[in-house]
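Nucleotidyltransferase substrate binding domain-containing protein, pasting as requested.
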Amino acid sequence: MSDAFDFSVPPFDRLTPEQRQRLAAALDLGVYARDGVILSRDEPADCLFVVRQGLVHERRGGEVVAVYGAHDSFDLQALFSDGQARSFVAAEDTLCDLVPRPILLELAHENAAFGAVIQQEFADRLSALANERSNRETAALTMARIREAYLRPPVFVEAGASLRDAAAAMKRDQASSVLVRDGDPKKGGRVGILTGTDLRDLVVLEGRPVDSPVGPLARYELLALDRDDLLFNALILMTKHSVRRLVITEQGAVVGLLEQTDLLAVLSNHSQVVALKVDRAATPEDLGRASQDIVGLIRTLHGTGVKVSFIADLVTELNRKIFRRLFELLAPPDLLANSCLIVMGSEGRGEQLLKTDQDNGLILRDGYVCPSLSQVTDAFTRHLVDFGYPPCPGRIMVSNPDWTRPLALYKDSLFHWIHRPDEAAQMNLAIFYDAAAVAGDASLLAEAKGYLLGRLQDNQMFFTAFARPALAFDTPSGLFGGLFERRRSEAVDIKKAGIFPIVHGVRALALEKHMAETNTTERIWALADQGVLDRGMAGELADAFTFLSTLRLKAGLDGSVSGTQTDNLVRTESLGKLDRDQFKDCLALVKKFKELLAYHFHLNH
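Structure tokens follow.
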């Protein structure tokens, strides 16, 4: 059937007749029924798929992000990298020609024109993926306020000060300008500005004596905006007047100067500014300041309607950068080389939005001993507390020796948690299953997880016990229907009633199937790919999880200025009608999912 391959389609039209014959001989044919999984998440590909007939959906997080029809090809990214966080599903009965990776590389090497197209398509694909997040964030930040940007502290000199005094003030405070006070502003005085460029022109080009007073030389027509004004208004003002800085006021008082570089940094990509601060941090205190910037980013993105899944991805990336950099600042090089710092729980799943309790650990290479280990781990926990990450009530932190252990002892614990599963063991196993590597040698965590999945057996009693906590908390329905008017002022713990049953129920199903995914939404769609959940239920669960997480984020932002998740309570009377109806539907779906879990894991026996 490979004779039917259409060589008129680019880039295959660039092959020579002899190369076409070799490719045709190497081709295979893939036949996929409607809703069949062609390529699953994080699965490396060994061939390029070229659609002969049918339709293929590329899915990410349950959403269809691309559609491939006849003559379209996929997936170069999976073919030349370590997999992808996407899956490809046949939207109808589909035939695909399969181009093996070796012949594709061979022809790309031989035929420069063919290879150039393949290389360019791969580069374009990576560029599009990289730009996708940046574009979404930039769009959201169009509504950012000036207070989201870094303001340079104002440096004042009096009008009688000399040009030399102004230069010395700029050098002392590492400023590019000074503000000049000419009299008391409260009594009709004025404030002007003198920049480093002005100083250079006055002294070098005009030959002004360095002891000349700055008062008559300053410019007093200041361009000023309030701190709560839009950043885009600042950009327009700078562009209109061809200036590089604006004076920023709050309640009429000067609070700083907004430099053009700082404004553009925020508008181009705020997360990259935070990441840059993390990368450049020389002390834990620097990291603490960067950590506080994340809260403002979350508020801006949420306030401008960005999806909670995107915010979670971004916050996960920035949090892990902070944890990694802190560990690098505290740990000696030999400890970094012989350990793996891990995060667990919501941080491990990539679902932490605001700062919840610490859940972290350290896996040491067998036989390695670090004399300063306790000082490093104690300092790590202490600094994270200072950054706003509360200590774990269960002491699941690197400062607890039970969670800073050699790999062999972690394996011993995993054996115990699997084969003697009391309540504490089940909790430990659940959070460890969610673990992700943050710093050090990630192969240590990979080996531990491989041991975990390898020890699991088809033991119904074990999985029944492991899944049972998903039903531990009540999911109320009396808040709605006939009792709604009487009980609408009651608060619902959204984590216990909705989020935890989804997270742990999906985790139990994923563990039973020995899945490597850690993120709840990715687990949901991986379960759908394997037929454990039908796609309708998977889509509803993913949507419900997103909606409930969004409500939880809003409750946390409303209840906390520090960015710490202190409130899981949702008060139904505070919801609009649409949100209230959707909340009701989500809780009803959670109840339905619990029934599915009870049946699947025999939890009613």
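Note for the archive: Residues 112-140 form the longest helix (29 residues).
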